[in-house]
Design a protein that fits this description.
The protein is an alpha/beta fold and 366 residues long. 43% of the residues lie in helices and 13% in strands. The protein is built from 13 helices and five strands. It has a five-stranded mixed beta sheet. The chain is elongated.
Length: 366
């Protein structure tokens, strides 16, 4: 296309164009178009017209042609665009929402009285089924906070004494007895000492740290831990096995660590080693101890599980351990550092609040 176009502007049009340029209430796009025509009438190159008007060269060509075809009035009108797609009807919206909350195609109820939840609706499958665009489905899902690709797991406790045990454990957390120590005890078993097959690269600006996807197993250890609710400190011992014998040894370690004269309330889960006859006998020989068991399938009530989650994320998961000894040294160092800055454990959910929330969970199918 020619770089210089001769635009002939009459005196009347020039006066109108200059008034548009000088009108501070005019939209910027009208002022720019008027400048394009005025500068073009001075026989300036297209590149210079574009620079002075602050637009692109295609814009200069477009409005030069528009002025030639429609005059000054053409500069003040925008061409109408083709109408966009009509908004989705209420019927289509209702259909998308209904299908989203139902089984996807081919996932009918099974003959053994349960549904196969292995598949879910995808945006493209929904768009094809309803006859709308993928983006339309995505907008509807966003507006109604639907996420078919996500699922949350749950399990209701079937313990017949669930309410009684929850009130007992939560009561110890929120209102511990005077002149007593409340400890949450559990074991984290099968902690693997993993060594990477190649050295990883450190974190750099714009690049994350790296670890090889494969590894070498150098053995396992079990961490026995007791979280003191009152001050947040942890007593930890690493042992090779996970039996009642090791559990009794750990109880003896906690017994030695707690000052004489203090009553000890221990919160535990229902693992078999915690109820072994030898453990029951040990408990009878140590009258200041009282065991409080969490309900079955309710490990979230055991406060020390939070410590296990933290040590896994911050020390174990990304660690490189040449041997079990290296792993145990790392665990012991972490516990030591944790105890230097520990804070009292705070439980905020009362028993009634827990019961109210659990009422929202469906009952287990028979």
């Amino acid at each position: 296309m020619a770089q210089t176009v001769n635009v002939i502007v009459s005196a009347e049009d020039r006066e109108r164009l200059l008034s548009i340029i000088g009108d501070r209430n005019r939209p910027l796009k009208h002022v720019q178009r008027a400048k394009i025509v005025v500068f073009s009438a001075e026989r300036l190159p297209v590149l210079e017209v574009a620079r002075r008007a602050g637009v692109s060269r295609p814009a200069v060509w477009r409005w030069q042609r528009r002025y030639g075809e429609q005059g000054v009035d053409g500069l003040l009108r925008d061409k109408t665009r083709k109408p966009g797609r009509a908004p989705l009807s209420a019927k289509i919206i209702a259909k998308v929402l209904e299908l989203t909350c139902s089984e996807p195609p081919g996932e009918a109820p099974s003959t053994i009285a349960h549904r196969d939840r292995s598949a879910h609706w995808t945006g493209r499958a929904m768009a094809k089924a309803v006859g709308v665009s993928l983006r339309a489905v995505q907008r509807l899902w966003e507006a109604h906070r639907l996420q078919p690709h996500r699922i949350r797991t749950f399990k209701r406790s079937s313990d017949p004494k669930f309410a009684e045990k929850v009130e007992d454990v939560v009561g110890l957390y929120m209102d511990p007895p005077a002149h007593a120590v409340v400890v949450s005890i559990d074991e984290k078993s099968q902690i693997q000492a993993l060594d990477r097959t190649q050295p990883g690269l450190p974190l750099k600006p714009g690049k994350c740290g790296t670890l090889t996807h494969d590894y070498k197993r150098n053995g396992t250890t079990t961490l026995f831990a007791a979280l003191n609710i009152l001050d947040g400190t942890v007593i930890g011992r690493c042992m090779k096995q996970h039996r009642h014998q090791e559990f009794i040894r750990f109880l003896n370690a906690v017994e030695r660590a707690v000052p004489v004269g203090k009553v000890i309330h221990a919160i535990l889960d229902n693992y078999g080693a915690h109820k072994h006859p030898n453990v029951v006998k040990w408990l009878a020989d140590h009258p200041r101890w009282t065991f409080h068991f969490t309900p079955t399938s309710a490990s979230w009530l055991n406060a020390v599980e939070g410590f296990f989650s933290t040590i896994t994320r911050r020390k174990i998961r990304r660690g490189v351990f040449k041997s079990v000894a290296d792993l145990e040294d790392a665990i012991n160092r972490y516990i030591k550092a944790h105890n230097k800055t520990s804070k009292p454990f705070e439980w905020t959910a009362s028993a009634p609040a827990i019961f109210k929330k659990l009422d929202q969970v469906p009952e287990p199918s028979e």
